[in-house]
Amino acid sequence: MNESLTQSVTDSFAQCADGRTKEIVSALVRHLHAFAREVKLTHEEWRRGIAFLTATGKKCDGIRQEFILLSDTLGLSIVLDDINQHHDEHATESSLLGPFYRDGVKESAFGANIAQSDGEPVFFHGTVSDVHGKPVADALIEVWQTAPNGMYEGQDPDQPEGNLRGRFRTNAEGAYAFHSIKPTSYPIPTDGPVGQMLVATGRHPMRPAHIHFRIDAHGYEPLTTALYSSDDPYVKSDAVFGVKPSLVIEYVPGKEGYDAARDFVLIPRERA
Ligand code: BEZ
Ligand code: FE
């Protein structure tokens, strides 16, 4: 009887003209019904779920997107990245873009310093090549990270414009280099329903220290990724599940502060 009810609902979409819409709403209904049956959802729990989603919507505005944060903290965003990424065993893995990317940052010279905050100095360097080992010259590399107070420029009026954001080009050998400071772990926003969900489920809100990278080069699939610090206490419990073992790096003591070396590997567009 239960299965025939689910069938009746999915049958109600029979006249849906758009095949993809029909596929998505039918699967949604099947999974929703199965979920409610599996946990034997009560009316009170259903009401609380509706209230939670209503509060999540009310928390959204032009800047804050609580539904995306919910998707991030439930692991849905990283599942989507995985489904939609072009896979190649030799290519660098992707990670979450997050809400703090900003376009329009001024391009800096090879080796420039992006930090206007005090912190532990780091020299980031490496190469961009393709899956066949060919260096990728003139690739656009965008980077952004938090200041030692755990905030991105844009969240924090006390940080100078463009602090800890950089835009670089690889040279003829596919190399990139810039100076910065060691990234810091930080909490995702907790002053909304997602924060309440984390408390109710016994979870912490921390993202392990990381620096974001976006790499774009003519003829290659764009790459959005991040490098995570191996010595961070949250590296195995990221609140938004963005860490992949291949993206964890070591900060090695160098000449002045730390040295962070990482090569990136892109997938040629024609193979996609
Ligand atoms: C970030 O890494 O910037 C981020 C990602 C997901 C949610 C919040 C922040
Ligand atoms: Fe981040």
UniProtKB/TrEMBL annotation:
Names of required cofactors: Fe(3+)
Q: List membrane-spanning regions.
A: none
- Identify the residues that the record assigns to the Intradiol ring-cleavage dioxygenases domain, covering every copy: 124-152
Q: Does the keyword Iron apply?
A: yes
- At the top level of its lineage, which domain of life is listed? Bacteria
Its name, as the record gives it, is: Intradiol ring-cleavage dioxygenase
Range of residues in the leader sequence: none
User: What organism is recorded for this protein?
Assistant: Caballeronia fortuita
Any one Gene Ontology MF annotation carried by this entry is: catechol 1,2-dioxygenase activity
Task: Give GO BP annotations, semicolon-separated.
Answer: catechol-containing compound metabolic process
Q: Which UniProt keywords apply?
A: Dioxygenase, Iron, Metal-binding, Oxidoreductase
What family classification does the UniProt entry report for this protein?
Answer: Belongs to the intradiol ring-cleavage dioxygenase family.
Q: Which residues form a coiled coil?
A: none
